[in-house]
Amino acid sequence: MIGIAVMFWLLLKFRFSSTEIEIWQGLFNRRHTVIPWKNVTTATFDANFYLRPLHALNFRADTLGGSFKKSDFSILLTIKQSISILQSSHLAEDEAFGKVYQPTTLSIVALSLLTSNSFGGILFMSALISQSGKLLGDEFSSRIIGTFEDATRRLAFGVPPAAIALAYILLLGWLIGFSILFMRYKNFSVTKYLNTLGIISGVLSKKEYKIRVTDINFVDIRKSLVTKLLRLNTLYISAVGYGKHKNDISCIIPAENARRFTKSQKELFPNFSPSPKQFFPERHGFMRFVGKPIAALASIAAALVVFSLLYPDLRSFVLFVGFMAFVPATFFLIVCIFEFRTGGVAFENNCYTLRYSSGFTLHTVVIPKNKVVCVELHQSFFQKKGPYCDLIISSRAETRSLHCCKSLVKSDLIKLFEIK
After folding, report:
1. Which tens digit of pLDDT belongs to each residue from 35-94?
2. Rounded CA gap, 370 and 396, in Å?
3. What is the pLDDT of residues 183-195, one digit of tens each?
4. Is residue 233 packed enough to be buried (19+ CB in 10 Å), middle (13-18) or exposed (0-12)?
5. DSSP secondary-structure letter at 284?
6. Highest mean pLDDT range out of 93-102, 148-157, 220-229, 309-318?
7. Chain-centre distance of CA 127, in angstroms?
8. Out of 81-95, 106-120, 147-161, 298-312, least confident range
9. How many CB atoms are closer than 10 A to CB 290?
10. pLDDT higher than 60, residue 172
11. Closest Cα to residue 77, out of 61, 62, 58?
12. Could you tell me the sign of the dihedral formed by the alpha carbons of 262, 265, 268, 269, in that order?
């Protein structure tokens, strides 16, 4: 395996000029790739913690013609080589003319707290325990698990041990996810040049992105119930190659208050400002928004009754699980009510503004007209005899990107999108 890896390294050749990138690679199946710089939408310089002592990094480039799962190419370079390559490309601009946005540490903490994924942390924790068992012996692994079981019984406070163990596992996973996300966004900054965005972040693994502004597909301002109550906004962008890998960042403006967010958004994305609503859901379409969460709440209630009767010995555990299920279902209902009150469509300055919800998140998406790929007016079974329909827009992206606004007047949308 080492010999094959060395052969691949010896046979890898590359050439960079001011107009294109050329790469020759492969052992038995030789591949010659030529990519013009003008087609590169995102260039990524990834200096992982194990490469930094060697003064090396991974250079990746993405275009619209590449795979949506991996970059068009990835090469290990020295830092000096990467600097000279960047200076020869169209992505390099004069630092003196850049507008720099740098969030506060509190903003990054808020983003990490509100978007941490417990599942990812649990996977990390389980992998750590299982690998420690292999490396240090099964006895060490068993001691860790036994210690956790003892602590769970002592801290149960009258709650069933199985239920409290599940809660502590989720909490620990969330804390691990928070730590990973915070380290990923620490030292985050965005520099807006004339034609590109320069993004830097990370502590142990430092990443730098260069994104061509004209290749940004859309801007997505997201709010959850918590951020809405705290009056915080986060902004994400869709651009080919940005945020596609597992450890990449995807946010541009972390959780900021309205005043600071508006100022930063106008400086970084002056052509992507949201427009006031022009077309919005009528009161007759209210059930179109709340039908699913109400059905989910009714199903949970029915399941609680059935399982309580079938398993009376597990009644306390069933009630606990049912309560835990009621919480996200209730949040989902509230989000759908907010979507009904705030949802809608607008068109201004050659951009469409779409307001809708997806899962537990409220979105305000600004899409340039030339990035809209397909417009679909869909009528459900209950909408066929009325004037209302759902608007489904497909936007330009590496993967299928859909935006759905519910229960709008069909005739208004036909005029807005000039459908014949």
Report:
1. 888 888 898 999 888 888 888 899 998 888 877 778 888 888 888 888 888 777 777 776
2. 9
3. 888 899 999 888 8
4. buried
5. G
6. 220-229
7. 24
8. 147-161
9. 17
10. yes
11. 58
12. negative
SS3 letters across 362-403: EEEEEEEHHHEEEEEEECCCCCCCCCEEEEEEEECCCCCEEE
Half-sphere exposure of 188 toward its Cβ, with a 13 Å CA cutoff? 23
Q: How many residues does the chain have?
A: 420
Q: What angle do CA 268, 335, 413 make, to 5 degrees?
A: 70
The total of other beta-carbon atoms located within 10 Å of residue 266's CB is: 11
CB 324 within 8 A of CB 303: no
Whole-number Cα distances in Å, 285 to 17, 121, 357: 57, 40, 15
Of 183, 166, 182, 186, nearest in space to 122 by CA:
166
Q: How far apart are the first and last CA of the chain?
A: 61
The tokens for 142 are 């068993």
Q: Is 0.85 surpassed by the pTM of this model?
A: no
Element (DSSP H or E) covering residue 88: helix 79-88
